[in-house]
Amino acid sequence: MFDKKSHCEYTSHNIPATPLNDAHFGRVFYFMGGYHFMGGIILANGIKYSKRPLSYIAQLQLLQSRGLHIKNEMVAEQFLANVSYYRFSAYCLPFETDRHQFKPDITFEDVVALYRYDQTLRHLIDHALEMIEIYLRTKITYTLTMTNGPFIHVIHEDNRYFFSQVRYDQWRRQIHAEIERSKESFILHYRNQYDDFPHLPLWMAVEVMSFGSLSKLFNNLTRAYQKQIGESLGFHESLLTSWLHSMTFVRNVCAHHARLWNREMAISMKYPRSAEWVGIGSKRVGSVLYIINLILKSMPGSHVFRRSWQDDINGLIDNSSHANFILKGMGFSLRHVLWQ
């Protein structure tokens, strides 16, 4: 039986208001039992949104009526004025016993601390993903162009390089759009100097590719080229395909400043066959911390950054006043030695 109430709660907190980069939503509509479906998302019929905006003072009063303790109303009001009640409310959920009813003794400062935790976690992960993205661009470009020349990515002959013609055509249109939008000086110079535009050498094209486009490039390469790149990085190609997809998702969450610490990813991430992965949720951000560490470990010259990054992550977790449920939300069933 379809549960209208539980569905409404799900759509309120799990479906983003706008799609993240590289996300694709279907446009197929069909109807069943008073609800209509769009691309697999169930939408209620006949319910008109009637909530009215509240002043900052009224927002605080609403939180207090639900059992949230507010020590300094002036500070709390300023926080909501900077962050917004709706964004804040997502971080209230772990502190509730029932919907809109807080656990005893939970304070406004507890929720703010979780918000700050998530904010810092995003910054630390985004910083590491920046290094990894540049490293992967370099490795993929070098491996492909040294044996096939600078324009391997704009040639598709007899399936020598790419697995799917359809996916390749979609990817190339997306890359051309990214190139056309770019105002980088090297793009403008190339456009004025050469006849090949918008076909750029791969080492130029990757500089304007999104992480998602880089992931799609690797995903559609033939197995031989995926294996060659995987061997240069020290990882099996099937793992890299999965990891690039997951890192793209997380990078987009970070770019949109969205909640990350307990977010469930759309697909499970593939793991190496190793006991150290036991107890880590494959759809949670904890798994991404693991692969970031593994890739950083494989990068020449990254030792100092990796150790500093590990210390920052450890310090963030250790200094949290609610470490147990935060670790659970991140996908850890127990406190692992994170950096084996």
Question: Strand order, biggest sheet?
Answer: 1-2-3
Major sheet attributes: 3 strands, antiparallel
The backbone outline, from C-alpha atoms, is elongated
Q: Ranges with pLDDT <50 over ≥5 residues?
A: 1-35
Count of individual beta strands: 5
Distance between the termini: 46 Å
Layout of SSEs?
Blueprint: H1 4-14, E1 29-32, E2 35-38, E3 41-44, H2 56-65, H3 73-83, H4 85-90, E4 96-98, E5 101-102, H5 108-148, H6 165-181, H7 185-193, H8 202-205, H9 211-220, H10 223-233, H11 237-255, H12 285-298, H13 303-318, H14 323-330
Antiparallel strand pairs: 1-2, 2-3, 4-5
Helix pairs in contact: 2-3, 5-10, 5-11, 5-12, 5-13, 6-9, 9-11
Q: Can you walk through the features of this model?
A:
This protein has 14 helices and five strands. It has helices at residues 4-14, 56-65, 73-83, 85-90, 108-148, 165-181, 185-193, 202-205, 211-220, 223-233, 237-255, 285-298, 303-318, 323-330, and strands at 29-32, 35-38, 41-44, 96-98, 101-102. A hairpin with a 2-residue loop joins strand 2 and strand 3. Helix 5 (108-148) packs across helix 10 and helix 9 packs antiparallel against helix 11 (237-255). The two termini are 46 Å apart. Mean pLDDT is 85; it is low at 1-35.
